[in-house]
Write a structure and sequence with these properties.
With about 325 residues, this protein is mainly alpha-helical. About 65% of the residues lie in helices and about 5% in strands. The chain has one domain: MetI-like (MetI-like fold). Strand 1 and strand 2 form a beta hairpin. Helix 6 packs across helix 8. The two termini are about 60 Å apart. InterPro entries: ABC_transporter_permease (IPR051393), MetI-like (IPR000515), MetI-like_sf (IPR035906). Keywords: Cell membrane, Membrane, Transmembrane, Transmembrane helix, Transport.
Length: about 325
Amino acid sequence: MAEQAVDRQEQEYPESRPQQPAAQKEKKPKKKISGDQWVAVGFLAPSFILVLIFVYGFIGWTGWVSVSNWNTLVPDFSFAGLKNYIYLFNDYRFQADLRNTVFFTILFIGLVIVMGLGLSILIDQKLRGESLFRNIFLFPMALSFVVTGVVWQWLLNPSTGYNQFLALFGIQPKWYTDTNILAGFEWGSIEFGLPVAIIAVVIAAVWQMTGFSLAMYLAGLRGIPDELREAARMDGASEFQIYKKVILPMLMPITVSVIIIMAHISLKIFDLIYAMTGSGANFVTDVPGVYMFETTFRGNYYANGAAIAIIMLLLVAVFIVPYLLANRRSDG
């Protein structure tokens, strides 16, 4: 009877059963790495090691040089603290570089988005010869910035190029040789405003990169179902309202991607400026990339050049890191 009472108690209250020692519990079998996973590791390991050394390793090395006293041909790795950074932010040329970068980035990104979106909407109207127009606008992307810089240097030369045609109307712009600053005011050691000469560089950069945003936006437009547009028309929406309320909001992720990619290009621009204008008179077309090159490889101020490179890296990271974190959260 007592044994039956104990069995009944264990059935009604399972937690009252005596617990088995931990050693007697079943051990979960360890997952073994399969052959395919070892193959994947073998293929990825060389790339991982190379990126670790030649990207992040060199970034760390550049950061160390930037806080050293190596500003001669003879290496000097003694610690200098933030001396090189303080020098740069008090330097007239570097202040001009930051000003030029700000205005170049704003104009470049804005025009690339507006022109790319506008052209993609026009091409999306099922025009005849659509493939021809698409190839015409995508062709500049096949060129390097060096080629683009040389071509536009000829076209915008104040004594030749477009000015020979504009002279018929009495217009003679100086293009990239103009040293005027629009709406300028004193900021540090420089006059902060829009350098007129940077507009010529913006024209060349927009000409080359508009095809990229055109392709992005056109792919986005072709991915929007026609049923959404028809439903909006049935609700009485005009074409303008359809684009404003339906299409443009759906293209917002593409716009963000274009902004990030174009900002990355504009903040580290070098080859276009170097081939087209150089630093320019009074540094009106100078950018940190050109300054870094001349400081490091012509002036042999390696610590100052490394500091410029680290500042450029941080400027790019301001745009790239939040974008990557947002994408990671959305994927999660």
